[in-house]
Design goal:
The protein has 112 residues and is α+β, with helices and mostly antiparallel strands. The protein folds into two domains: 48 residues; 54 residues, no CATH class. 46% of the residues lie in helices and 15% in strands. The chain has three helices and four strands. Strands 3-1-2-4 form a four-stranded mixed beta sheet. Strand 1 and strand 2 form a beta hairpin. The longest helix is centred in the first third of the chain and has 40 residues. The radius of gyration is 30 Å and the shape is rod-shaped.
Length: 112
């Protein structure tokens, strides 16, 4: 290195200052990484598509549909997909309405 002081006290002072500065830089890096993670989470939240108003839950192994749900129903399984209102109404003629969220009542569907 160039331009370092020749005496031990000033070299130790410089070493202490460098260690403190490095600690500040490392803390700034931790904070910047935290901000980036939070920004990424926010971008992911904003990029998610809105929940469907109506869901059709398929049976196991691509079996026939088993339930129609109101969008956001906590009882809807992983095999559920969003469907439009008219498809939900038609599906209720052949598929059970979820007894938990009652899409038939929400849609004004009268059986029969």
């Amino acid at each position: 290195m160039t331009n370092l002081p020749p005496d031990l006290p000033r070299l130790r002072t410089l070493a202490t200052w460098l260690e403190l500065t490095l600690a500040h830089v490392r803390q700034a890096i931790v904070e910047a990484e935290r901000r980036e993670r939070e920004q990424e989470r926010q971008r992911n939240r904003e990029a998610r598509s809105p929940a469907a108003d109506w869901l059709l839950e398929s049976g196991i192994g691509d079996g026939p549909a088993v339930y129609v749900h109101v969008g956001g129903c906590s009882m809807a399984g992983k095999r559920s997909r969003g469907i439009p209102r008219d498809v939900a109404l038609r599906a209720l003629a052949e598929v059970d309405a979820c007894p938990h969220c009652r899409p038939d009542a929400e849609l004004g569907y009268l059986d029969g």
